[in-house]
Amino acid sequence: MLSISTTVGKQFATGIQDVIFEPQAQLAYQHLMFDTIKNADNLTIDMQNPSQWLIRVGGRLTKTIATENNRPMSFYGKVNLIKTFGDDQAIHIDKDYKRDPSGTSLEGGLGISAQLSTNLS
Question: Strand 37-38 to strand 104-114: parallel, antiparallel, or no bridges (unpaired)?
Answer without folding.
Answer: unpaired
